[in-house]
Amino acid sequence: MAGDNPDHNRRQPGxxxxxxxxxxxxxxxxxxTGLPAFGEAQLCPDCRTKxxxxxxxxxxxxxxxxxGAGENHLCGPCLASPPYFERARSVFRYGDESGxxxxxxxxxxxxxxxxxxxxxxxxxxxxxxxxxxxxxxxxPLHPRRLRARGFNQxxxxxxxxxxxxxxxxxxxxxxxxxxxxxxxxxSGQARRRNLTGAFALGDPxxxxxxxxxxxxxxxxxxxxxxxxxxxxxxxxxxxxxALTLARxxxxxxxxx
Length: 256
Ligand SMILES: [Zn+2]
Ligand SMILES: [Zn+2]
Known about the structure:
This protein folds into 2 domains: 39 residues, no CATH class; 204 residues, 3-Layer(aba) Sandwich (Rossmann fold). Helix content is 34%, strand content 16%. The strands form 3 sheets. The chain has a 4-stranded parallel β-sheet with strand order 2-7-6-3. It has a two-stranded parallel sheet with strand order 1-8. The longest helix has 18 residues. The chain is globular, with a radius of gyration of 20 Å. The N terminus is likely disordered.
């Protein structure tokens, strides 16, 4: 059997990659400029500079970037009203270019940009800032929205950002308990009202005492992640952290 020959197995990935490059020469995902070879992130040097990785100083809790230099510290909103999650971190800023990559991933099919996102996440070192999770929970979609889109982008993200922790990814634990309006059409307070009590746990005993990592595509106001974290903490989760690919830029002025 071919699979029994280790040399044969080793050659396979290289051969497939070479054939793919011959049939589909690599090009930048954003501007289509030809690239010399399939690299880690499929972006030309010019477009890569337009994707801005999140960098300190950050809010120790919600991960909001502060302008200027300084140490990480708590932002005003987190001081005034601490979120239910311990820490939220993101890979890059939501901007024109990163927004186009995300849109292609979300609506153009689940494979577009996957390797590029994983490469950017490795480069950002974001996973090292989070506690090793016992359970990884993608933010769920309502079944109606899941049927319309065909896949949950948060689950796909969790799988390719953390392939070696795949067995800890549990899309079945957290559920949307009711239909909600798309958050993008609402302002801050309306977002919170819209999502209050929108998430529930099928079996709360499964999260009791556990360290949990929530995964979603974009952090905008943090309302969705906070509502998920609230349901988890109320069910007895020991700690909840959150990882998103993108973050809408809400720079705060650094203190001191
Ligand atoms: Zn480009
Ligand atoms: Zn904060």
